[in-house]
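From the pipeline queue, job 12 of 40. The input is one protein chain; the requested action is below.

Action: predict structure.
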Amino acid sequence: QVQLVESGGGLVQAGGSMRLSCAASGRTLSDYTVGWFRQAPGKEREFVATITRISAARYTIYADSVKGRFTISRDTAKNTVLLQMNKLKSEDTAVYFCAARSAYIGSKEKSDYDSWGQGTQVTVSS
């Protein structure tokens, strides 16, 4: 397992942008497939985006609800995975979690991920 810490959350107005970071300690995050998930109050944790490990060409997958607005990427120099969120909507309000798995293939299933961060709150005001 790898220890993950999310940062970058906060309050933003609808239509604005925010960038979340997922940092790893003790391990090289490039060796893991990383996913972002989110959980709104009273709802199940849902998939947002995933990026495969570097050796698998950094293939990305997005949830339909964020496609075209969110971008997942790696900053290998900082050992982090980023989630750039643009054109934010009130329905994007949630706690955002990053997760990691050693497999080459990305997954939309939270049960496929072995390591999780504590989450960071994103609130979009309308």
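Job complete. The chain has no helices and eleven strands.
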